[in-house]
Write a sequence for this structure.
């Protein structure tokens, strides 16, 4: 069913998208996990260069974001998404450990838990995105407590997506999310430990320059070199800056240093893999295998075979 194209939400979203350089491709009616109506927007960049790459944005039909406390964050989200759509694989990102992942099938917005717990839940899926055909993935249920929800300006997708995705990456870094060919949903707990009330920002991982540099190289290797046919990827991504506890400007500065060494080809805020970087394939494949292994449960083999003293 097509929504009323003159509704306040549609009109406001179309204006905000246009300001971010995005075109509204379609609007359809959806529903959340409690069968309440939602508006499902498909957005894209004008021109043929990024044909086939679209952004899905699902909002509660009654949501009103044209307010001083909500509009700036919506505008910033759409502007960032417009730049991500220039990536060859906009849905993909990399973990600090070196796992390339694709995010998909997230069922926005958050819904209240049906188990009686005082939490909000959003379901989604991440899959290993290394170019292989193994179908390794993890179905996730990201949960936010009522206390945490009170910190946020809204529980809608544009205000929650980045910190949820980063919480998923952090959970993988901790070895608490396993990639399988099938399986039940695995929990991702988004708690107040990821947020500094004093600094009023999210804090996922403390990193130094060396770790951030290595992250950028892995990102460009996988997303540009392996998955992107050598096309450039966005370096100054605020989602990565939040994940690494740094700034977009700092990420650009470090990318510039590596470009000077011949490992990256920098084009403004975007970078492409060079032959020198691609030559590190064995190193990055080994990092991937180690990171993937870290997510697998470790069993005591002597106990499994009954040799341990009980």
């Amino acid at each position: 069913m097509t929504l009323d194209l003159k509704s306040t939400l549609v009109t406001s979203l179309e204006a905000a998208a246009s300001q971010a350089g995005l075109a509204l491709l379609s609007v359809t009616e959806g529903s959340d996990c409690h069968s309440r109506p939602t508006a499902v927007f498909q957005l894209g960049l004008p021109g043929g260069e990024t044909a086939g790459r679209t952004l899905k944005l699902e909002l509660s039909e009654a949501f009103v974001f044209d307010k001083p406390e909500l509009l700036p964050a919506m505008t910033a989200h759409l502007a960032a998404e417009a730049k991500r759509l220039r990536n060859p694989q906009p849905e993909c990102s990399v973990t600090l450990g070196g796992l390339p992942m694709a995010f998909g099938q997230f069922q926005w917005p958050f819904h209240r838990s049906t188990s009686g717990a005082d939490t909000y839940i959003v379901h989604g899926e991440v899959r290993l995105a290394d170019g292989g055909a193994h179908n390794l993935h993890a179905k996730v249920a990201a949960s936010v407590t009522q206390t945490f929800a009170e910190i946020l300006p809204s529980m809608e997708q544009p205000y929650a997506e980045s910190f949820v995705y980063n919480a998923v990456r952090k959970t993988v870094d901790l070895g608490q999310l396993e990639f399988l060919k099938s399986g039940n949903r695995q929990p991702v707990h988004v708690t107040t430990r990821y947020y500094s009330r004093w600094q009023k920002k999210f804090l996922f991982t403390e990193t130094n320059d060396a770790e951030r540099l290595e992250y950028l190289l892995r990102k460009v290797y996988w997303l540009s070199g392996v998955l992107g046919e050598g096309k450039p990827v966005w370096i100054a991504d605020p989602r990565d800056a939040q994940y690494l506890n740094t700034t977009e400007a700092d990420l650009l500065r470090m990318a510039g240093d590596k470009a000077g060494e011949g490992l990256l080809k920098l084009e403004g805020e975007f970078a492409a893999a060079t032959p020198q970087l691609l030559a590190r394939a064995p190193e990055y494949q080994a990092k991937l295998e180690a990171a993937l292994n870290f997510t697998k449960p470790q069993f005591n083999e002597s106990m499994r075979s009954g040799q341990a003293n009980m």
